Amino acid sequence: MKKNDHLTLIGMILGIVLIFIAIVIGGSFAGAKIFFSVSSLLTVVGGLIASLMVNFKTNELKEAISAVKTTFKREEQNISELVEMFIELSTIARREGLLALDGKIEELDDPFIKKGILLTVDGLEADAIKEILVAELYAIEERQKIGRNVIDKAGEIAPAWGMVGTLIGLILMLQNLDDPKTIGPSMALALITTFYGSVLANLFFIPLAGKLQNKTDYDLYIKQIMIEGILGVQSGQNPKLLQEKLEVFIDKEVEKQSETPTSVNEEVLTDV
């Protein structure tokens, strides 16, 4: 079930507000105007966009935009309900045979589970089903990694373009050293681009990349549970045993949140 994730937007707005308050407290409301520079913003944002266009393909940039949109949504999966569904499918398979599951396929909402049950009804062996579903996990991970890589790179490049803007400002300032009164304001203006680059990287791009990584880890974890359930149904496993096996994931989910993320090839092939 997808719901709006207001925490992402709240965090960004809160960061901007707190930075603004810090500026006002450290100076004055009128003095805060110096932090708004169109030329500095154009240097950082324009340079950042140009670098990303050089570094990535058009489809990768589009994937990044789609990935950012997903950070404002959260997909919740009730593992208990997932376990109950597989127990029901397992019971039907044991009582009436695997072909009886054909009538339940249209009732399944998740495409991944639907694909697994279709393969089961088609009579594929457990190893073949596992191989196909794990390949699907690889595809999901790689697809999500594309967008995340763009956001990661933006987090790397933004501070660098801030420094480029600062260097431009310093060069322009050094051309007017004959007027000492302009040195202070010119130096402040030169440093604003570094400020913009750091804020963009640390308040937007790096946190967004982290959130996308967490989303990928969670998606893969849920699909590992699905693979366990599908293989249990295919093998005609006793529903009680399958229930005990899948319920381990309910307790394990809390532990997973504190563990170092692992990729599909490290975890799926050992857990599934």
UniProtKB/TrEMBL annotation:
InterPro entries: Flag_MotA_CS, MotA-like, MotA_ExbB_proton_chnl. This is Flagellar motor protein MotP. The keyword DNA damage does not apply. The chain crosses the membrane at residues 7-28, 34-56, 157-175, 187-206. Residues 106-217 form the MotA/TolQ/ExbB proton channel domain. It comes from Vulcanibacillus modesticaldus. It comes from the Bacteria. One of its GO terms (cellular component) is plasma membrane. The lineage of its organism: Bacteria, Bacillati, Bacillota, Bacilli, Bacillales. It holds the Pfam family MotA_ExbB. GO terms for biological process: bacterial-type flagellum-dependent swarming motility; chemotaxis.
